[in-house]
Amino acid sequence: MFDFLRNHQVDLMLGLSSICGIIALFTFISKAMPRRRKYALLQMEIGSAIWLWADRVAYLYHGIPGTYGYWMVRISNFLVFVLINVVLLSVSLYIEDVLLNEGEIEKPPIILNITKLLSVIAICLVVISQFTGIYYTFDENNIYTRSPYYFISYVFPYFVLIIQLATLVRYRKRLRGKIALSVFLFDVVSLTASMIQLFAYGVSLVDMAAVVMVIGLYIFALLDMNERVERANQIEINQLKVEQQNLKHLFEQTVTALATAIDAKDNFTRGHSLRVAEYAREIARLSGMDEKKCDEVYFAALVHDVGKIGIKDDIIQKDSNLSDEEYEIKKKHTEIGGEILSSISEFPFLSIGAKYHHERFDGKGYPSGLSGTDIPDIARIVAVADSYDDLTSGRSYRDPLPQSTVREEIVKGQGTLFDPEYARIMVNMIDKDTEYMMREKEENINSTDHTDLSKVTEMRFEEYKNSVSDGLQITDHKTKISFKINSDLGYESRFAMPSIILFDSFDGCVHNDDRNIRVLNYIEYGEIWLDGNTICTAARDIKSTISESGSFSPKCEIEAVRIKDHVRIKIRNQNKRIDVIVALLDAVRFAYIGITGEHCKIQNITVEQDKEAVLEDYIPRIAQEVNYINNLQGDIPNVQINGYRSDITKPLPVRDGMRISFFTKSLPSANLIWHCAYVLLFSADDEKQDGTNYREFACIRIDGEDATKVKTASNELVVRKDAEFESWDVWKERNKKGFPCEITFKRRKNKITMVTSNAGISIKNTTIIPDNEKNILVALTGDQCTLTNIIVL
Questions:
Q1: Do β-strands 577-583 and 566-573 pair in parallel, antiparallel, or remain unpaired?
Q2: Within this chain, do residues 272 and 395 fall inside the same structural domain, yes or no?
Q3: 415 and 490 share a domain?
Q4: Spatial CA neighbour of 171 closest among 118, 112, 215
């Protein structure tokens, strides 16, 4: 190793000296480094470059006689001994700057000033050595020879290095990272090299090791500088983000305040713009738009009605129908809104929603009569969201419509009022909103107040049915309600007690006025008092059994459960056990229980539901099961489907040229378009819907809508209405009466084409199934319908 260094050290010195010179140039032109640190590094690099150059010259002219050799060896060796201490002095200055900046100390440590003094003394001794020869001498041939006191030249650098290390150790908690590590390595490596140098004569190990570490100091300083710049940039970016976010919040608050002021013009549109904006943003997100575009849709929807500012309040707030002249004036709000917002040139998308949200996809809208994709996509989204909120909000002339009716209206408007794709997304949002949360809050609804039993601890009842709790749906999982009863003073308990109303309605609430009963499809099965008395209203039968007699107890527990078309309600108190069984109209309609009463209060209300379902024989039958399929049967058994895909026909493998004919009819309780038959393509190891390894490829309704749950295959659905199709209302009436239907299948490997036509609707769906699926099955299912006389050809 030493032989290699001895033989090549002159070349190594030249290379290292050149590197130090280049680094010195980079340090000089650097602007991102602290000034004191830059000067320390510059001094260090220039000193190291000259140090190694001088050491190289000393070796090259070693032993060369003559005047030129005389001066070269003496000047070069003098520079070597001086510049060792200059470089160490630069390192002390470097450490001092690091402590003041990264270490955040108030003033440089006194101990570092000692290293400066020692470096100056060492330089003075080198000068004295030139006249006394205490470090080295030269003979007549210019050959370098160490003097007996040569070791003194090591004493001062040693002390400087040791003090520097001690400083680093002392302030180690303040100095972390690359800078502290680089200085520590410089001192340790230089000390180690100097010790080896004492025994390695003829090799400038200290010089080369120290210069290598000086280069390392620069590299670490450069890395630290890059980190500083990156941190500064990140801080600046974060500040810009915060400022941008603050501006966005300010913009949003301003626009929201404006929208709120607009909605306040009409008591029945409070919160309308904000809800429309939320629905519109969700439609945009589900359609695949990026976050920026979704925000644009949101803000455009938030101010879509800004033009109402220019319409007279007596027209905006008019309760009765508008005259033709008034309606034409109100229509102007789109143009007014467009003009107002068009002046905001930084956000051109704002005016789009305001101006075009009343355009229709079929071109029959206003103000410009645009059609199809000529209508800006923002306006097409806002149009769907705006119509949905209108339908689900209370107005002066009507209550909010039930969710099922709203869904049907959106479906009807596909391709005419609305963009089909955005309307489809809205329909999917409705289907996922099983608790009907996407609507105007109840405090803004012009209807009777209701109470959620699961969220209150007490209720008071004055006159009978004046106040009724929201309905709790009865399922095959036991629902348990408990409370304490307090009768009002002056009333006997038998005339002042709670009662149960068993009913069904679209919104799960009890209604008394004729209009809501009709619109919300309200039906009351019967009433049950907590003393065992009952009234059978629309139910087929009610039977009540009181197992024990006695006085009425104030503490009460109610247990309700349903199996198919029968409901069982048990009422328990301290002295009575009442068991009520109700035969519903069918197994299709829902069943809710609402708590009401008269001249009493119930307290400490709790509601719980069992996790496990009861067995089918839990409720004794008091009436025969309602069955609509006791008629002609074909190749496979008839199926009655009471709920959404609750049953399916026997699955069959799909064959090329296969035909399935059947007779379909919606149940008496059905009243919606999608209460019809569905065609299901799937695969499963056990050939069951949602069975083992179930994969669903297509679920096509015979009304022409794709109802596939999870799209594991691609489907191209084409739906046409022919001359036979009159309207969806007529289609529903034909479905109630029933009609024959035939489905034809063509299969080419993994491509399956299904074709059918019924009641004026022609459907063609092409499904491309993944290659690894071989056993593709087809079955018929649906919602609230019957499938009979099923023939497979």
A1: antiparallel
A2: yes
A3: no
A4: 112
Is 253 part of any domain?
Answer: no
10 Å Cβ neighbour count for 465? 15
Confidence of residue 549 (pLDDT cuts 50, 70, 90): low
Q: Decide if 634 is inside a domain.
A: no
Please check whether residue 55 is in contact with residue 62, taking contact to mean a CB–CB distance below 8 angstroms.
no
The verdict on residue 624 lying in a domain is no
Q: Is residue 249 part of a domain?
A: no
Q: Does residue 737 sit in the same domain as residue 603?
A: no
Regarding predicted confidence, which is higher, 136 or 223? 136
Predicted TM-score (pTM) of this structure: 0.50
Residues 678 and 755 in one domain: yes
Residue 749 in 3-state DSSP?
A: coil
**SS3 state of residue 59:** helix
CATH number for the domain spanning 488: value is: 2.60.120
Contacts of residue 714, defined as CB under 8 A and 6 or more positions apart, other chains included, come to 767, 768
3-state class (DSSP) for residue 54: helix
How is residue 284 written in tokens?
């945009």
Rounded to whole angstroms, what are the CA distances from 744 to 664, 680, 764, 778?
16, 13, 10, 12
Three-state secondary-structure class, residue 401: coil
Strand order across the 577-583 sheet: 459-461, 600-613, 477-487, 555-563, 566-573, 577-583, 541-548
Task: Tell me the C-alpha distance between 564 and 571, whole Å.
Answer: 21
Q: How far is residue 293's CA from residue 299's CA, in Å, rounded to a whole number?
A: 10
Number of domains into which the chain is organized? 4
Please answer whether residues 570 and 578 qualify as being in contact, where contact means their C-beta atoms are separated by less than 8 angstroms: yes
Q: Longest C-alpha distance within the chain, in Å?
A: 137
Asked if 217 contacts 43 with a C-beta cutoff of 8 angstroms, the reply is no
Residue with tokens 């009575």: 576
Residue type for position 409: E
C-alpha triplet 31, 34, 40: angle, nearest 5°:
105
Closest by CA position to 136, among listed 208, 60, 73, 64: 73
Each residue of 412-469: pLDDT tens digit? 888 899 999 999 999 988 887 766 778 775 443 333 445 778 888 889 888 888 889 9
Q: Dihedral of the CA atoms 508, 513, 514, 519 (nearest 10)? A: -40
> Could you tell me which residues come within 8 angstroms of residue 11 by beta carbon, excluding any fewer than 6 positions away?
none
- Mean pLDDT for the stretch of residues 92-102: 81
Residue closest to 570 by CA, chosen among 547, 592, 541, 594: 547
CATH number at 27 reads 1.20.1070.10
pLDDT in tens, 159-213: 888 888 888 788 877 776 666 677 777 777 776 766 666 665 555 666 666 677 7
How far, in Å, CA of 159 to CA of 179, rounded? 22
Matching residue, tokens 């749950």 = 709
The CATH number of the domain where 435 resides is what? 1.10.3210.10
Q: How far apart are CA 481 and CA 454, in angstroms?
A: 9
397 and 486 inside one domain: no
For residues 164 and 364, what is the distance between their CA atoms, to the nearest angstrom? 86
Distances (CA, A) of 154 to 80, 158, 165, 318: 13, 6, 16, 102
Are 321 and 297 found together in one domain?
yes
The 3-class SS string of 218-269 reads HHHHHHHHHHHHHHHHHHHHHHHHHHHHHHHHHHHHHHHHHHHHHHCCCHHH
- Structural domain containing residue 679: 639-792
Give the contacts of 201 (CB within 8 A, at least 6 positions apart): 146
Contact 648, 680 (CB under 8 A): yes
Cβ-Cβ contacts under 8 Å for 324 (sequence gap 6 or more): none
